[in-house]
Amino acid sequence: MTDAPVLAAERLAVSIRGMELVSRVDVEVGAGQCLAIAGESGSGKTVTCRSFVGLLGRLGGEVSGGRLLLGGEDVSRDDERAWRSRRGRAVALVPQASLASLNPVVRVGSQMVETIRALGGARAARGRALELLEQVRLDDPERVFRSYPHQLSGGMRQRVMIALSIAGRPRLLVADEPTTALDVTVQRQILALLRDLQRASGMALVFVTHDLSVVREIADRVAVMYAGETIETGPVADVLQRPLHPYTRALLAADPTTAPRGRPLSEVPGKPADPRSWPAGCRFQPRCEHAREECAAPAPLRSFGGSRAAACHRVEQIGEGR
Amino acid sequence: MSAPVLVAEQVTIRYRGDAPPAVVDGSISVAAGETVGIVGESGSGKSTFAKALVGLIEPSEGAIRVAGRPWREVRRRDPERRRVQMIFQDPYAALNPRLTARRSVAEALSVVRGVPGAEADEQADELLASVGLDARAVDLRPRALSGGQRQRVVIARALACDPDIVVADEPTSSLDVSAQAQVLNLLARLRAERGLGIVLISHDLAVVRHITDEVLVMRSGRIVESGPTEAVMSAPSHPYTATLLGRDAGAAAEAAAE
Amino acid sequence: MSATAAAPTHPVARVARRLRLPSDVGLLIGVGTLAAMLALAFLLPVVTGYGTNEFAGAPYQAPSLSHPFGTDQFGRDVMVRTFAAAKVDYMIAFLAVGVSLLIGTTIGVVIGVVHGGVVDWLLSRLVDAVIAFPLVILVLALVVAVGPEKSAPGLPAGTPALLIALFVFGWAFYARLAHAQALSLREREFVVAARMMGYSRTRIVMRHMLPNVLATATAYAVGDAVFIIGATASLAFLGAGVQPPTPEWGQIMFEARGVLETAWWTSVFPGLALVVTGLALALIADGLIQRLEGGSK
Fold first, then answer.
1. How far apart are CA B73 and CA C114, in angstroms?
2. C38-90, pLDDT tens digit by residue?
């Protein structure tokens, strides 16, 4: 049993067709831990999560810098063949909830059996499929097994996707906004399900989302991304209550769930950064109210004790109200 | 309190066939300057109700009146038609992709308010500036604008009709947190400055809580609870409302602790 | 939701990017080629002094310096005739496609807006009927009925019949395309918004729906032009196309079919011109479609 974290990204950079979309991701997840990657659109969080399961090739992308380590092993330059043997067994992906995740003309049961067989469990594949459907808390697994995807509700389909993703007992599960398109009550159930599955199996969970209340509900640690970089990391409660980075603060002040009531929500001026025109220095600088001259230089991720880190030159000064 | 502009009385909306009605006994009353939220999950009927409120769908039973007149009697060119406008969830689909921001708004000004050509362009520019659209973006087509900018254009176009009430159907669901904040603040400002009445339909309770005075909770076509927003959200009487709120309990506790 | 970079996926755009050319290069090459061919059509007779229907040298001369494409059975310069045919073929394609596009698209949008009721039903069945038959046979029948030898002011012999036949049957394809688009546009929020603001139906159709439909229809139309030119050339082989002596690629190749082995230049050059035109049109169609899709959310 290795001591290395299940997943570690060190200054990971990802490019798609020559354009760099992710410049620096520094995160780590251990067994039994849940890491949330939070960011808005354009932050690079989706590309990052795809890189964790080796699905970049399909997009014409590649790891263009830094390292990606799975269980201590450097997989940054692995090809499709290496990833294919890994996918489903060592790492698995739960995609965003959509009708397109499942083949609409094939019954759910057949799709599950197909996946289970591909993972090497030909015998009793049907039994295993039903067992998985029970594990994801579907009432009447037999009926779901026989159904076509469109006959199931969004929440049920998502449970099927989760069942498929854990079929190979992966050590790392990457979930890309799996609850975004679902109703609030269903969302809550799915999150609880994921948490319980994680605890039962000891797998690591990476959860990509733009919703901070989801982060609070499911994650142990959070990494906030902006313009292709990790700009803050730390334990969820700490980061959400005492954010260090101005962007994290702005996000919290703009989110109606966390913002103080009775006042206009805080507005972050300007638009999210465009990968084609990222500033040379700190990428949040054009929109930051605390920016000074030193922010014209790139901001490295600095540690701040309590396993927290932030990529900002002026954390100390801002904290003191300067 | 001014007289209500938009009133729905026991509206039931049925689709063709035997499917259960989308809305049953829906009632609402909105005056200028009031903000009412309608919350519910998918299938609650809130979007159908919203479409009926703006006169797009005929109720099977009950009536919806604008300034006293039922929608079914209002003709295209009647003044009541422009008094209630809609803001949509998908701002990209809500704009004609071939028209620049200025053109979309200017057209509304000239067709609905009879403002002549060149003046319409000027007023459109002013209107767009008043909703916070960057001056450089006025000449751009929707494709070149961000989600938040598109939504501002949609709002400006709706405002061009000089409505008393705006029905916003999930106006920020497809927007990022930062863009959402801008749009919500804009709506609040419009209400304060112009006395605009707002009906906000959303599945996001935090959004509704932030901006509305009254709220209706819908489930399976029925309104299960209604009342002042703060009261309903801090002490719901109906179990379904409590279930919906369950997730926000954590956030509320945090906010209270600050 | 997330904005993946606008990385070109279209093969032409990818090649263009690698060669550091603007991604529109396909479109430019296509338009440039057509323009060049037309320019040559007008310039060559002036520059060379040979007419399109004049004796210019001994018959069936192989390509030489004085006749780069050789001469045909009547001693006419093949190069001058080949490029002159471009004028004829382009005009036919332009007129046939243009009229079908405008009329067919408008009818299609109207059906889409009217939606339901007798008018919708009747027009839709008409469209279905026209599309159900093989186009070339219908066109042939109509050309023969009208009279392939007829001409009209500005239109050489054979073309009026051809154009009429192409109009009568061509519009239906555009109508179907436009109808389908109109149906989906109707439910799009900006059309709904227009209704809510009280815009008139005419305005909604003319200003909001039609322009959005025409954009796609035009891209389709350019591809259709390739078909039209091919059909025109084929009809010449059935005697129902443009009549001699007017130069038209199909007609020229038809006349030259007997001497394919001995005087290859009389068939090959017109054939190449037709192929090049087809390629240029295809590049233009691709470029237009790329532009249309290149700007989605």
1. 21
2. 999 988 888 888 888 888 888 888 888 888 888 888 888 888 889 989 988 99
Pairing of strands A34-38, A19-29: unpaired
Q: Could you tell me if C36 and C90 are in contact, meaning their C-beta atoms sit under 8 angstroms apart?
A: no
Does residue B124 carry a pLDDT above 90?
yes
Q: Do A272 and B207 touch (CB under 8 A)?
A: no
Structural tokens at position B225: 């609870």
Q: From the CB of residue C33, how many other CB atoms can be counted at a distance below 10 Å? A: 17
Residue of B189, B191, B202 whose CA lies nearest to B164 = B191
Interface of A with B in 150-179 (CB under 8 A): 154
Q: Which DSSP category does A286 fall into?
A: G
Residue C5 near residue A14 (C-beta atoms within 8 A): no
Could you tell me the sign of the dihedral formed by the alpha carbons of C242, C244, C249, C255, in that order?
positive
The CA distance from B121 to B108, in Å, is 10
Q: What backbone torsions phi and psi does residue A7 show, to the nearest 5 degrees? A: -135, 135
Substitution target in C181, C197, C203, C212 with the highest count of B β-carbons within 10 Å is: C197
Yes or no: say if C66 and C37 are a contact pair by the CB < 8 Å rule: no
Q: A93: part of which helix (H) or strand (E)?
A: strand A91-94
The residues spanned by each domain of chain A are 97-169, 246-319
B111 touches chain C (CB under 8 A): yes
pTM of the shown model: 0.81
- For chain B, list the contacting chains (3+ Cβ pairs, <8 Å): A, C
Write out chain C residues lying below 8 Å of A60, CB-based: 7
- HEC readout, C13-80: HHHHHHCCCCCCHHHHHHHHHHHHHHHHHHHHHHHHCCCCCCCCCCCCCCCCCCCCCCECCCCCEHHH
B107: closest chain C residue by CA: C199
Which chain B positions have a beta carbon within 8 Å of A184's beta carbon?
41, 203, 205, 244, 247
Contact (CB, 8 A) for A311 and A299: yes
